[in-house]
Amino acid sequence: MEKVTAGKEQLGDFAPQFAAFNDDILFGKVWAREKELAARDRSIVTVTALIAGANFEQLPFHLQKAKDNGVTKEEMVRL
């Protein structure tokens, strides 16, 4: 799994603790637990939750992440 560094890149100077939490804990430890839930399935759940909650600002990142995790365009359309 590719390491996510968006928090450090975008917020590292302004909010370093938040950036570290985002990158190291959320994406580094939680998203990395593929024994519990495969990255592909986790992406489907995340995209679905973002759409259901009208959290569209995060959608482009997570749609790309879903694609990177093997979710097909046809599957995404059905979400």
From TrEMBL:
InterPro entries: 4CMD/NDH-1_regulator (IPR052512), AhpD-like (IPR029032), CMD-like (IPR003779). Signal peptide: none annotated. It comes from the Bacteria. Residues 16-77 form the Carboxymuconolactone decarboxylase-like domain. This is 4-carboxymuconolactone decarboxylase.
